[in-house]
From TrEMBL:
Gene Ontology CC: plasma membrane
UniProt keyword terms in alphabetical order: ATP-binding, Cell membrane, Ion transport, Magnesium, Membrane, Metal-binding, Nucleotide-binding, Potassium, Potassium transport, Sodium, Sodium transport, Translocase, Transmembrane, Transmembrane helix, Transport
Organism whose genome encodes this protein: Tothia fuscella
Stored SMART domains: Cation_ATPase_N
Gene3D superfamilies named in the record: Calcium-transporting ATPase, cytoplasmic domain N, Calcium-transporting ATPase, cytoplasmic transduction domain A, Calcium-transporting ATPase, transmembrane domain, HAD superfamily/HAD-like
Protein location: Cell membrane
Annotated family: Belongs to the cation transport ATPase (P-type) (TC 3.A.3) family. Type IID subfamily.
Cited InterPro entries: ATPase_P-typ_cation-transptr_C, ATPase_P-typ_cation-transptr_N, ATPase_P-typ_cyto_dom_N, ATPase_P-typ_P_site, ATPase_P-typ_TM_dom_sf, ATPase_P-typ_transduc_dom_A_sf, ATPase_P-type_domA, HAD-like_sf
Cation-transporting P-type ATPase N-terminal domain: residues covered: 64-138
Topology class, membrane: Multi-pass membrane protein
Protein name (Swiss-Prot/TrEMBL): P-type Na(+) transporter
Length: 1058
């Protein structure tokens, strides 16, 4: 037409390419790198029918069914597309090939869940201690430790079992039924009974039950986003044959793949793969790749590798950083327990009598926090329950705490960051101006948001009297197969949807592009039903969209009219040569397309003309019907972000978490969305933008060394394949990043499994993705991830608090017992400053509920304003280690002072005889000293529970952002009700333990005290002074958390304002 077209940097797809101008040859090369062609002999690349080839494997030909004609495939599979398989032949093939089912969901394994609870180092240590206790006939201590082990296992098992049951409820069959041609009759049957060679009938809304080579199709398109990540439906053309064996599934437009959804038209296909042989099956096999990746290794190497993997699993040395750290810590404690036992044995010159062995076991018990697993499990379970209320289902308890430490989130775009629903955002109407839709929150609701013409708001009650606008609306409404409806009268077209108490719910059927156009027409009260009723129009002809013409045309007329109207929409590069416009005007249109494309919008061209309704050629011949069209306008379509996404991304960035977008969409579409949600800064320089945004082709071309040499990994990766996403995760791991991957499609599943925390979508996610994920978002909302991060960080802080509390107690007991070796009775045997049951009572009863209360602490105000905690350091930070040693030394020393004060003060150093075994008349002093030491240790632990609520703030100024003033301590300790009552209960229960007859002397090996309470009170006061002094030093010299300023209410408001 005398006009040179140039590339517009926009996305193309196999449906009407909503894109900028592109020469046809360039479009074909870009969109279908392996060009489909009709099986003709004069093609540029000669077509060779594989059915005529010699010695070509039939199974391989069927596997590459896209490269042969449908007729050839039917001959290979011995099936008549008009008749289908016989029932007998289908039964034979079903028995031969098996059922059509993806083996992704393995179901619940009770034994595996149970083994998961035992597979940690601390449980192994407790089992050893339990065995030793029973071995020396100490049945009370052995029974108590057994109860601890059982409690740990039961609590963890119940929570994991519930989580697995919940996730199983999310599974559903991809295609429970299908319409199949058998014995010449169409019948409905279970999809799992399909076999290779079956002829399947597909229509709009059907889930494709198996991989099919299409035989015929009418205006057919399928949503393949769950498989390829492409957000737009892919138009199908059975007549095409593709000769390149490396053609990607997304470009095989003569195929329909299992679990994809028909969005338009109808089609018939021959099943070429079922079950694990489908494309989804390939992804499922990829998830299991780790089991076969070393198949080429020798038998010895495989056995050794399996042994190491199993040993690490049993010891809990695989998993998240916290579980690994705690398992290593448990092994360290076990080594320390052995060392303490050796010290005890050495003082007895290795004359190991039952009494010496018992003292060694007591020292071992003292160093092990027996309740740690139970407290940790219950704390995480409570956090999991809170997350479930926030629509996050945690499949593994470790995932919640792990999420609190992530540094990067790699997110899919379609359906995760965006709604997966198109909105007509801009419409350039010839002769009128540009209509812009803004502030819309519902893609299906024509009353959502507002509109303006150029810069002037549009009042729908007083629409411009413009013939151009009316023509535009008639084209987009009538050249459209979508329907948009509402469930309430208050929302009907032409009325307002703001009726109080009558808010409508809108729904739509059709492919997203046509839905968005229909909604735009309905905004002007010109939807298809309204126009047909108002103008009494009749459909005379429909020329459907196909992948070659990339346009759709309908022709309407009325009974009393001699003319008919042609309404056309389609790809601009295909419609532009057909327009009856000057070359200069076409150049202007091309520039307008580029302008819209630069905004990341997908662009459709709208055209119209009037023809003679009595001319049959104008109604039947596509070439004539679509010639000499008049340009009506352009429409820019937009897949809107979820409402909560931008704020969620902003919160992630404020928390030091980098958000990456990994999508199958075109680079400019992805870049536009990334800017809208805040992943990309719109003020980036050209160089920064080139590094932040990258195509998957460019990324995949780079070696690992080249990727590692980048200053920063790209924030946006477009046109991603599963391999691209997995390589991105691996690149982050090489940078010692800890990453979460979100996704909903089958193509996301390998990366979900590879990521440190995999997060699947519950509503629109595939079964394979859910099976690979650690967490599932039941509402598919991105802001639920922020809630999970918030909860994970709160959990991490609280784990540090109760871990510090438990370890302070253990260190104090070790100091007390080691120095206690010097206390010899008249028979030269060491006397226990604390009896074994006193130690277990303190560790299991007193400390456990206090630690659990600390696990329920609310988050600090600045929790989402600080960077993620170091995963290399984990929970055992330098501050925690120093604090536990200092506080443990304070506590152990004061407990020792209490024991010595009673024995060597009033008691004159009389340690009696055989007082470790039980009470006799010589043990009064020792038993009173033990009671004093026990009470001192208990009360100091109660005070410590409140002191460790914050590592540097004073107990008398714990939470200035919520409570201030001289009595703030009472408000602060009352704020956590569980911890408050745990302290009260610990205080009250000390007295019956000390005073109940028989129980005190026989079980706990102590007796009631009187004046000794003065020593206990003095030790508590001194301990408070020492702890507060150390905290003051930390604040004064900015040690640990002492250098972090407290965020008060005014400062928070200022930050929010900024």
């Amino acid at each position: 037409m005398g006009i040179e077209t140039s590339d517009a940097p926009v996305e193309e797809s196999t449906e009407p390419p909503l894109c900028g101008l592109r020469p046809t040859s360039d479009f074909q090369t870009h969109n279908q790198p392996n060009i489909g062609q009709k099986p003709t002999l004069d093609s540029a690349t000669p077509f060779v029918d594989p059915g005529t080839a010699v010695n070509v494997n039939v199974d391989e030909q069927v596997k590459q069914a896209y490269s042969i004609s449908a007729e050839t495939l039917a001959r290979l599979l011995d099936v008549d597309p008009q008749h289908g398989l016989s029932s007998a032949e289908a039964a034979h093939r079903l028995e031969r090939d098996g059922i059509n089912k993806i083996k992704d969901a393995k179901g619940l394994s009770t034994w595996k869940i149970l083994l998961r609870q035992v597979s940690n180092s601390l449980t192994m240590v407790l089992l050893i201690v339990m065995a030793l206790s029973f071995g020396i006939d100490d049945y009370i201590e052995g029974s108590v430790i057994t109860a601890v082990i059982v409690l740990n296992i039961v609590v963890g098992f119940v929570q994991d079992f519930r989580a697995e049951k919940t996730i199983q409820s999310l599974y559903a069959l991809s295609a429970p039924t299908s319409n199949v041609l058998r014995d010449g009759n169409e019948q409905s049957m279970k999809a799992e009974n399909l076999v290779v060679g079956d002829v399947v009938k597909l229509k709009v809304g059907d889930i494709v039950p198996a991989d099919c080579r299409l035989v015929d199709a009418m205006n057919a398109a399928a949503d393949e986003s769950t498989l390829t990540g492409e957000s737009q439906p892919v138009a199908k053309d059975p007549s095409l044959v593709f000769l390149n064996p490396e053609l990607k599934p997304g470009d095989r437009t003569n195929m329909a793949y299992s679990a994809t959804v028909m969005t338009r038209g109808r089609a018939t296909g021959i099943v070429v793969a079922v079950g694990m042989g489908t494309q989804i099956g390939d992804v499922a096999n990829l998830l299991r790749g780790s089991a076969t990746e070393n198949k080429d290794q020798s038998c010895v190497v495989r056995i050794w590798t399996s042994f190491k993997r199993g040993l690490k699993s049993v010891l809990g040395l695989d998993g998240t950083p916290l579980t690994i750290k705690l398992s290593k810590f448990a092994l360290l404690l076990f080594g320390l327990a052995i060392l303490l036992a050796l010290i005890v044995f050495s003082t007895a010159k290795f004359d190991i009598t039952g009494d010496v062995l018992l003292y060694g076991i007591v020292c071992g018990v003292a160093v092990i926090p027996e309740s740690l697993i139970a407290v940790l499990t219950i704390t995480i379970a409570v956090g999991t329950k809170a997350m479930a209320k926030g629509n996050v289902i945690v499949r593994k308890l470790s995932a919640l705490e792990a999420l609190g430490g992530i540094t990067n989130i790699c997110s899919d775009k379609t359906g995760t960051l965006t709604q997966g629903k198109m909105i007509a955002k801009k419409a350039l109407i010839a002769g009128l101006g540009t209509v812009t839709v803004y502030d819309t929150t519902s893609p299906f609701d024509p009353f959502s948001g507002g509109m303006k013409l150029d810069d002037e708001p549009i009042n729908t009650d007083k629409l411009p009297d413009s013939s151009q606008l009316k023509t535009f609306l008639r084209v987009i409404a009538l050249c459209n197969l979508a329907t948009v409806t509402t469930d309430k009268q208050g929302g009907n077209e032409g009325t307002t949807s703001s009726v109080t108490g009558n808010v409508p719910t809108w729904s739509a059927i059709g492919e997203p592009t046509e839905i968005s156009l229909q909604v735009l027409a309905m905004r002007f009260n010109s939807g298809k039903p309204v126009i047909l009723e108002r103008e009494q129009q009749t459909l005379l002809a429909e020329l459907p969209f196909d992948s070659e013409t990339k346009r759709m045309t309908v022709i309407y007329g009325s009974q009393n009219s001699q003319t008919a109207e042609v309404f056309t929409k389609g790809a601009t590069e295909m419609l532009l040569p057909l327009l009856d416009e000057t070359d200069d005007r076409k150049l202007e249109i091309a520039e307008d397309v580029k302008t819209l494309a630069k905004s990341g919008l997908r662009v459709l061209c709208i055209a119209h003309k009037i023809v003679d309704s009595n001319d049959p050629e104008q109604l039947t011949e596509r070439k004539l019907a679509e010639s000499n069209l008049r340009f009506v306008g352009l429409v820019g379509l937009y897949d809107p972000p979820r409402l909560e996404t931008a704020d969620s991304v902003r919160q992630c960035q404020g928390a030091g978490i980098t958000v990456h977008m990994l999508t199958g969409d075109h680079i400019l579409t992805a870049q536009s969305i990334a800017q809208d949600v805040g992943i990309l800064n719109s003020n980036l320089s050209t160089l920064e933008a080139s590094q932040a945004v990258m195509s998957a082709t460019e990324f995949d071309r780079m070696s690992n060394d080249q990727i590692d040499s980048l200053d920063k990994l790209p924030l946006v990766l477009a046109r991603c394949s599963p391999k691209t996403k997995t390589r991105m995760i691996e690149a982050l791991h090489r940078r010692e990043a800890y990453c979460a991957m979100t996704g909903d499609g089958v193509n996301d599943a390998p990366a979900l499994q590879k990521a440190d925390v995999g997060i699947a979508m519950g509503l629109n996610g595939s079964d394979v993705a859910k099976d690979a994920a650690d967490m599932v978002l039941s509402d598919d909302r991105f802001d639920s991830i922020v809630k999970a991060v918030y909860e994970g960080r709160r959990l991490f802080d609280n784990i540090q608090k109760f871990l510090l509390h438990l370890l302070i107690s253990n260190i104090a007991q070790v100091i007390l017992l080691l120095i206690g070796l010097a206390f010899k009775d008249s028979s030269k045997r060491s006397v226990f400053p604390l009896s074994p049951l006193e130690i277990l009572w303190v560790n299991l009863v007193t400390s456990s509920f206090l630690a659990l209360g600390l696990g329920l602490e609310e988050a600090q105000p600045d929790i989402m304003r600080r960077p993620p905690h170091s995963l290399r350091v984990g929970v055992f930070t330098r501050q925690l280690i120093v604090d536990k040693m200092i506080y443990g030394f304070f506590m152990g020393t004061l407990c020792l002072v209490a024991f010595v004060g009673v024995v060597y003060g009033v008691g004159g150093g009389d340690l009696g005889t055989h007082c470790n075994e039980g009470y006799n008349s010589t043990c009064d002093v020792v038993f009173r000293a033990r009671a004093t030491t026990y009470a001192t240790l208990s009360f100091l632990l109660l005070v410590t529970a409140w002191e460790v609520k914050h590592f540097s703030r004073s107990l008398f100024n714990l939470d200035p952002s919520r409570h201030s003033g001289p009595f703030s301590i009472f408000q602060a300790v009352w704020y956590n009700r569980f911890l408050f009552w745990a302290v009260v209960a610990g205080f009250v229960i000390t007295f019956p333990v000390v005073y109940i007859p028989f129980v005190n002397t026989t079980v706990f090996k102590h007796q009631g005290i009187t004046w000794e309470w003065g020593i206990v009170l003095a030790c508590v006061v001194v301990y408070l002074v020492l702890v507060e002094t150390w905290k003051a030093v930390k604040r004064r010299f900015s040690i640990g958390s002492g250098k972090v300023q407290v965020l008060n209410g005014e400062r928070e408001k200022m930050e929010r304002a900024v």
